[in-house]
Amino acid sequence: MTEPTTFDFDEIFASVGVLGHTFSDRIATLDGRTVRMRGYLAPAAHGHDHHDHGHDHGGSGVLLLTRSPVAPCPDCGGGHDYPDDAVFVFPAGAERPRFAAGRETEVEGVLEHGSLVIPGVGTSFVRLREARWNHT
Amino acid sequence: MKRWILSGAALAIVPGLAFGQAIYPLDRATIMSGSKFDFKVEFPTIVAQDSVEVLINGEPYDKILGATAEYIEDEEGSGGSTLLLRDVAIATPGTYTVEAKAGDVSKSVGWEVFGTAAEPKAKNVIFFLGDGMTVAHRTAARILSKGNTEGKADGRLALDDLQYMAFIGTSSQDSIHNDSANTMAAYMTGHKSVVNALGVYGSRAESNFDHPKVETMGEAIRRHSDKALGIVTNTEVQDATPAALVSHTVSRNDKAEITEMHLAVEPDLLFGGGSAYFLPQATPGSKRKDDKDMVAAFKDKGYAFATSATELQQAVADHEAGGKILGLFNTGNLDPTLDIRVTKAGTVPDFPDQPLVADMTRAALEVLSKDPDGFFLMVEDGWTDKATHALDWERAIYDMIALDQAIGVAREFQEANPDTLIVFVGDHTHGLSITGTVDDDKPGDVMREKVGTYQHAGFTNYTDEDGDGFPDSMDVSKRLMMYLGNFPDHYETFRPKLDGIFVPAVQDADGKYVANEAYKDVPGAMLRTGNIPTDINAGTHSIDDEVLQSSGPGAENFRGYMENSDVYRVLVDAMALAPAAN
Question: pTM score, two decimals?
Answer without folding.
Answer: 0.95
